[in-house]
């Protein structure tokens, strides 16, 4: 770890750069001074293809000039810009600073567009073709990695088109989710439920809530034990958006379907994280993105 906290690598890189440039200059100087042993006809004695002889002429001036310009350019560049290890350069340029300047320039160019959308409700923005195109691009760049390009999600990643929401699907809740992110935590509950047989009974009762295939005898035995789960999912199993617990009656299974999947969930629990976007996207971008997401399950706007 000390290699990353000391200035060794900075000095090492700076040394390699200086040695390389100095070596180029010395090579040019020696090549101009050194003279090869030549015959009386100014050739080196090397012959190819019978009659192709190597002459001992000096390097062309234009080539030498370009070589010198290259060395001088490298020296000026290293003086102005960071290149000698940890040296910042006299110009004060940084890649981070350039990035931030370009982002600020881009934000300034699109500010009038976003200002118009910020003055509108999310529901109205979702019907605007231009906002839809911007929101779609924001979604592809920031959300599709988990939720898929079609927003249908996958195992462990919610489908955003089915109007089934863990924390609520109102525009305000979607904006809140994008800003702050979410942490979904289903703790291991096997010990609280009882024996492995009790867990299996509860799993079948959960399946019965959505009308899924199940063992009715085990489901009846598991109903009482479901009281342990009701604290989050409600006595009727419909979940509570206030705590982000899933609705167990709608036959939508985020982490897998069937008795074994439910048993594994009760036994092992699950933690899901939706990262916050407020440090990555501006308020205006989140507003437009929220309108796009809301529109996916609420009469999505017409495309251009």
Structure notes:
One of its GO terms (molecular function) is electron transfer activity. Component of the cbb3-type cytochrome c oxidase. Pfam families: Cytochrome_CBB3 (PF13442), FixP_N (PF14715). InterPro entries: CcoP_N (IPR032858), CcoP_N_sf (IPR038414), Cyt_c-like_dom (IPR009056), Cyt_c-like_dom_sf (IPR036909), Cyt_C_IC (IPR008168), Cyt_c_oxidase_cbb3_su3 (IPR004678), Cytochrome_c_Oxidase_Subunit (IPR050597). There is one protein chain. This protein has three domains: about 80 residues; about 100 residues, Cytochrome c-like domain (Cytochrome Bc1 Complex, Chain D, domain 2, Orthogonal Bundle), CATH 1.10.760.10; about 90 residues, Cytochrome c-like domain (Cytochrome Bc1 Complex, Chain D, domain 2, Orthogonal Bundle). The chain contains 14 helices and four strands. By secondary structure, it is mainly alpha-helical. The C terminus is likely disordered. It has a two-stranded antiparallel sheet with strand order 1-2. Helix 2 runs antiparallel to helix 3 and helix 6 crosses helix 14. Strand 1 and strand 2 form a beta hairpin.
Topology, element by element:
Elements: H1 2-5, H2 8-33, E1 43-48, E2 52-55, H3 61-80, H4 95-118, H5 122-125, H6 129-142, H7 144-147, H8 171-180, E3 182-186, H9 190-193, H10 196-209, H11 216-225, H12 227-233, H13 259-268, E4 270-274, H14 283-296
Binding site for heme c 2: 186, 229, 232-233
GO molecular function: electron transfer activity; heme binding; iron ion binding; oxidoreductase activity
Organism: Rhodoferax lacus
